[in-house]
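Recall that a protein's primary structure is simply its ordered list of amino acids. Everything else, from secondary elements to tertiary packing, is in principle encoded there. The following example makes that idea concrete.
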Amino acid sequence: MAVNQTNKIVWLVDTIHKAGKISFVDLNQKWKENELMSDGIDLSKRTLHKWIDVISDTFGITVSNEGRGEYRYYLENPEDLHNGSMERWLFSTNSVSNALIENRCLHNRIVLENVPSGLHHLENIMEAMKHNRRLRIVYHDYFGNTDSLLIVEPYILRLWHQRWYVVANALNTRNVRRFCLDRILELSIMNEAFEMPDDFSAEEFFRDCYGVMSDEGGPDVTRVRLKASAFQANYIRVLPLHESQKEIERNDSYSIFELHIRPTYDFYQEVLRMGTQVEVLEPNNMREELAKMTGIMNKMYNY
């Protein structure tokens, strides 16, 4: 696993963050001790200050120094490591990469998730997004088992449950749809440019959603109340299902969580995944739909 500049600047942010404040002498000592990063070579102040500029541009993190006494370096805005979706993801991913590099001796004892979903299309889609160019794609529809030639304007890329999706304006249907990259059979960048709508926001597009489903004509934002066993509540509490989630009741037996969300099919799937550990209290139409789905499942397994 190669060490690149991103790995090195993430190491720098990690080291300063863990120390709180650290002098250049101590920072250089930690750098030299990490031979996979440094090859035992000193970290020059010129390189350090160059990396500090890159850190600001890449992650929006400001590394400053006291300018007196021990001349210690610190992060001005460490809270930003937990804000900003792409920056947080980049930092987290590269922090894990560094940990794996430092512990390569454990390679046969660490199992990672595979993300096979159309990775060969990612670079072209990002290139088109960067220059606001339309894409020509051939897309396979599982429901109709058909292939369609489409011209789309790519707005958003999203990674969800080991699959990459592009949210794009489909010119043939004139609506914004999501396309899973592993169902794109062919893709090419066109010379035709498009204008990104000024009022379009990726955050707003997915704000009321659980996963990737945010289709026009879908369910309205609804108050959903879930009753979770005390055991399952631990998982829901630590990893919230949605940013609107609130725990409104808690005792030794169960907790009740309230969310304001569009209960789309992927949310139904998540509730079903938790099995008997979670019960939907409201809305009633969601209870009824889940009852139908579990009834069908019961027939499937009723020997």
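The mean pLDDT is 86. The chain has three domains: 5-109, 119-206, 222-301.
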